[in-house]
Amino acid sequence: MFTGIVEELGTVESVEDQGDAIRLTVRAETVLEGTGLGDSIAVNGCCLTVTTIDDGTWTADVMQETLDKTSLHGVRPGDRVNLERAVTADKRLGGHIVQGHVDGVGHVLARHPSEHWEVVEVSLPAEMAPYLVDKGSVTVDGVSLTVVEARPTSFTVSLIPETLARTTLGHRQVGDRVNLETDVIAKHVAKLVAAYLPQVQESKEQDA
Question: Mean of the per-residue pLDDT values for the chain?
Fold first, then answer.
């Protein structure tokens, strides 16, 4: 479990192709503090398990399923990545509840800079649209953000200078792929309501 508050920008050290998987090695500092083998670190919003730690780097195995459904497919040495350790019970929930389970991949559609912030528009798969609402929460490349405007096939977010400086969102260009995760609470509510509504409709029809 994560909060969507990026702790540092790491650098991809190496990518070892294993056919149906890759071994991803990332150079980092902050996220290695107190981290042991088997712990979880989110990389651009994708929860990965630490398998080795060695001299300022850590390694994770990334399965084909993850490569197929996230922007980690195509990652190269030298790429900067957002990193966050799994949250502990004594930490502030500065963002929102983030699972590190990517729901889909979007693309940066537009960037509109202003003097003190930047509005960014991101596309999203149509099946994710019902879970986004204006002023609701969304995770983009592991960054907890507030939706400015939710649209049928895209949404906008407003990025403050701190976010632009401390995460990969500061240099994502139009056309770049980004990992998206919608609010888990919204997904649970939608499932519960979907199961309940047919019963309500059936009851009304019987009463009529």
Answer: 92
